[in-house]
UniProtKB/TrEMBL annotation:
Annotated region described as Disordered, given as residue ranges: 1-21
Span of domain ABC transporter: 22-269
Record GO terms (molecular function): ATP binding; ATP hydrolysis activity
Cited PROSITE patterns: ABC_TRANSPORTER_1, ABC_TRANSPORTER_2
Listed InterPro entries: AAA+_ATPase (IPR003593), ABC_transp_ATP-bind (IPR050319), ABC_transporter-like_ATP-bd (IPR003439), ABC_transporter-like_CS (IPR017871), Oligopep_ABC_C (IPR013563), P-loop_NTPase (IPR027417)
Protein family (similarity comment): Belongs to the ABC transporter superfamily.
Top-level taxon of the source organism: Bacteria
Name of the protein this chain belongs to: Peptide/nickel transport system ATP-binding protein
Taxonomic lineage from the root: Bacteria, Bacillati, Actinomycetota, Actinomycetes, Streptosporangiales
Pfam family name, one: oligo_HPY
Keyword Cell membrane tagged: no
Species the sequence originates in: Nocardiopsis flavescens
Amino acid composition bias (Low complexity), ranges on this chain: 1-12
Length: 352
């Protein structure tokens, strides 16, 4: 896989007393639909522990519908979890208007579609200044903060862009305006949902390089939700692989993407152009959060179980009947919610 060269050495994640800047603990989100006896519950997020350390970039990867966007919304305070907690710098997130207003100054969203997220009737200056006005009203240094944010986002000299409208900008420039709108409040954490998915391949590397530079220069932390494992390789310190509402593999980017343990992670990696060999075609239907299987939630589509490898390892029955459990979300050992992977590594559920 290719890498993005930044010319700067990334700081080691973590710091201070080791408290994560952002943490999900036992987060579950259940959506219900229908009426009366026909009501159905969809477990969009079904038990997630995940930490983001100061100065760390965590990539949350998985297929569409696996729960990445919902988990991101929970971490932003846009969605309240059905159970579990979100913590910021060790303190549980409060959901009063006052608490959320203060929180959203420090944890900012970078949206997927810059064209859709920018008002076509507003200039670049007005779009970037909007966050300042929402959170603090018009301030004497507003113009200075807007130009500084644009400059940090790579739009230089910023004066060239202040009076432009979105239609006058390229896709990459529009995404930089969106990032500047987040930076203007000087947050500690960015939560980005597919931040380069709508951009041409030639522009993606520039935006990824920008995010790395912001981490190196400002100490920003980030959670980046993506289906693109190549993006994760280029930008992340750690990778959390999500399937049907739960993290099924977690470790450093080198561990997860160079030595994947979970059959689902292996299948995702097999379709990359650099992978070589035949891609793994998953059997069965795409996952339905209203019908989470018993045992390992991946077992109906698992090629290891279907091929008999799990049986030869003596774990086929466990795959069908025993839930591998929720992985611990902190930095540490490469962990996998897979009975077969644990049997191969000779680890127990508590240590895998």
């Amino acid at each position: 896989m290719s890498t993005v060269e930044t010319g700067a050495e990334a700081p080691a994640p973590g710091g201070g007393d080791g408290t994560p800047v952002l943490r999900a603990r036992g987060v579950r989100v259940v959506f219900t639909s229908g009426f009366g006896g026909g009501r159905a519950a969809a477990r969009a997020v079904d038990g997630v522990d995940l930490d983001v350390a100061p100065g760390e970039i965590v990539a949350l990867v998985g297929e569409s519908g696996c729960g990445k966007t919902t988990l991101g919304r929970v971490l932003l305070g846009l969605e309240r979890p059905t159970s579990g907690t979100v913590e910021f710098e060790g303190d549980p997130l409060g959901y009063s208007s006052r608490d959320l207003r203060a929180y959203r100054r420090r944890v900012q969203l970078v949206q997927q579609d810059p064209t859709g997220s920018l008002n076509p009737r507003r200039t670049v200056y007005e779009s970037v200044a909007e966050g300042l006005r929402i959170h603090g009203g018009t301030t004497a240094d507003e113009a200075e903060r807007v130009t500084r944010a644009l400059s940090r986002a790579g739009l230089r000299p910023p004066e060239r862009f202040l009076s432009r409208y979105p239609y006058e900008l390229s896709g990459g420039q529009r995404q930089r305006v969106v990032i500047a709108g987040a930076l203007v409040l000087e947050p500690e954490v960015l939560v980005a949902d597919e931040p380069v998915a709508s951009l041409d391949a030639s522009v993606r590397g520039e935006i990824l390089r920008l995010l790395l530079e912001l981490r190196d220069e400002l100490g920003l932390s980030a959670l980046i939700a993506t289906h693109d494992l190549g993006l994760a390789w280029n930008i992340a310190d750690r990778v959390a692989v999500m399937y049907l509402g739960r993290v099924v593999e977690l470790g450093t980017v080198e561990e997860v993407l160079s030595e994947p343990r979970h059959p689902y992670t292996r299948a995702l990696l097999s379709v990359l152009p650099e992978a070589g060999g035949d891609p793994v075609v998953l059997a069965g239907e795409p996952p339905d959060p209203k019908k989470v299987p018993g045992g390992c939630r991946f077992h109906p589509r698992c090629p290891v179980l279907a091929s008999g490898e799990a049986g030869r390892a003596g774990v086929a029955d466990r795959c069908r009947t025993e839930d591998p459990g929720v992985l611990p979300g902190g930095a540490g050992a490469h962990t996998t919610a897979c009975h077969w992977a644990r049997a191969r590594e000779g680890t127990s559920p508590g240590t895998a």
